[in-house]
TrEMBL record:
Organism: Lutibacter profundi
Entry keywords, A to Z: Amino-acid biosynthesis, Decarboxylase, Lyase, Lysine biosynthesis, Pyridoxal phosphate
Protein encoded by which gene: lysA
Residue numbers annotated as active site: C328 (proton donor)
Binding site for substrate: R298, Y302, E329, Y356
Domain named Orn/DAP/Arg decarboxylase 2 C-terminal: residues: 18-354
UniProt pathway: Amino-acid biosynthesis; L-lysine biosynthesis via DAP pathway; L-lysine from DL-2,6-diaminopimelate: step 1/1
Protein's UniProt name: Diaminopimelate decarboxylase
The reaction(s) this protein catalyses: meso-2,6-diaminopimelate + H(+) = L-lysine + CO2
EC numbers, comma separated: 4.1.1.20
Cofactor(s) this protein requires: pyridoxal 5'-phosphate
Length: 402
């Protein structure tokens, strides 16, 4: 991921461009497994929604990871990538009973997060084991849009409704084989996360035939120099000890699950874009690139920070720029950023572009989605072609209006 390499890739594959470093993905995966090495049964399920390119999925299969999915299409992608059904967990929100039933036919682990579907599914399929998603009523996460475990969240069944879950289980005779929670993304305070796990441990004592407990994820990665991130090693030490003790009390060696997405792939990716125009106004200097929130929406949607640097002139005199896109709305990637002097034609690099970037891209303004490249074992591989005009029309049905 050196500047020289990235410049050569954008010349080879075109601009804008996503580039992912397999080595970083592997190191992040190993970092979590090492942090929880004292847990006998540890299972990581990569969150497909973070980056669903099938080659990224194949890399995780090679690492012996499972996958966490939120749609039947992600399940199908996982199977296409070679994952066996038992290594796939389906954790949707607000989907129909029909979709859950279709997924269950594929043999994957079902995770249900509302009483209504739990009861309907249990009545029709009491012999299919089901995991239940619990809402612990814990506020965590770096942005309200990605805080999903609080009392007003649409996700999960309230921890205070456990007696109602037990009633459904008794009436249907269904088998609950797992408990799940996810408090939110960008977790900084380990103690808050540990407090949420205690709620799940207490809940787990109500269920006598569990096989696993899934603690979600949301581990924070650094976005800028000196940024705070989740201390995964400290969390591993504290939670492993508590989990092993709980298993002893429960009388069974359960599997400890996580479903990391951003933690595994965010830092692996960069987004490259060419500078179209450098525009001086009365109060600002804009560097406008050949992209916009159609390709990278996180700064506009979540106020997320992506470090931006000029890889065409990395040692130039630093000046202040607002980096913007070419969309016909305000699409600011970064305001008043200190960046090496930018000229038209330079290439800017956006860090932390491996998670929730391409996967949230669109064709807004009828722009093409960019190409994706994977660096693996010292070689670059095109893993998605840049779209063409034909792709924009592919599923449109042209009718005769005469």
């Amino acid at each position: 991921m050196e500047n020289k390499t990235l410049v050569s890739l954008i010349h080879k594959y075109g601009s804008p461009l996503y580039v992912y470093d397999a080595e970083k993905i592997i190191s992040q995966y190993n970092r979590i497994t090492n942090a929880f090495s004292t847990v006998k049964n540890l299972k990581l399920n990569y969150a497909v929604k973070a980056n669903s390119n099938i080659n990224i999925l194949k890399l995780f299969k090679k690492l012996k990871s499972g996958i966490d999915t939120v749609s039947i299409q992600e399940v199908q992608l996982g199977i296409k990538a070679g994952f066996s059904p038992e290594n796939i967990i389906f954790t949707p929100n607000g989907v129909s009973l029909e979709e859950i039933e279709e997924v269950s036919k594929l043999g994957v682990q079902i995770n249900i997060d509302n009483i209504s579907i739990l009861e309907q599914f249990g009545n029709k399929h009491p012999n299919i084991p089901v995991c239940v998603r619990i809402n612990p009523h814990i506020m965590a996460g770096g942005n309200h849009k990605i805080s999903v475990g609080h009392i007003d969240s649409k996700f999960g069944i309230s921890v205070h409704q456990v007696p109602l879950i037990m009633r459904v289980v008794k009436n249907t005779g269904m088998h609950i084989n797992g408990l799940h929670m996810h408090t939110g993304s960008d977790i900084l305070d380990i103690d808050v996360f540990i407090a949420a796990t205690e709620i799940l441990f207490n809940t787990a004592t109500e269920f006598k035939n569990l096989d696993f407990i899934d603690f979600g994820s949301g581990f924070k990665v650094p976005y800028k120099e000196g940024d705070i991130s989740t201390n995964i090693e400290e969390l591993g030490e504290k939670l492993s000890k508590r989990f092993n003790l709980f298993c002893k009390e429960y009388g069974k060696k359960l599997t400890l699950m996580f479903e990391p997405g951003k933690f595994l792939v965010s830092e692996s990716g960069v987004f490259l874009a060419n500078v179209n125009v450098v525009k001086q106004t009365t109060s600002n200097v804009f560097a406008s690139v050949d992209s916009g929130f159609n390709h990278l929406i996180r700064p506009m949607m979540y106020d997320s920070y992506h470090h931006i640097h000029n890889i065409s002139n990395p040692k130039g005199r630093e000046r202040y720029y607002s980096v913007v896109g070419y969309i016909c709305e305000t699409d600011t990637f970064g305001s008043n950023r200190r960046i090496s002097e930018i000229k038209e034609g330079d290439i800017l690099c956006f860090n932390n572009a491996g998670a929730y970037c391409f996967s949230m891209a669109s064709n807004y303004n009828s722009r093409y989605k960019p190409a994706e490249v994977l660096l693996y074992n010292g070689k670059d591989y095109l893993i998605r072609k840049q779209e063409t005009f034909d792709d924009l029309l592919k599923n449109q049905v042209i009718i005769n209006l005469n």
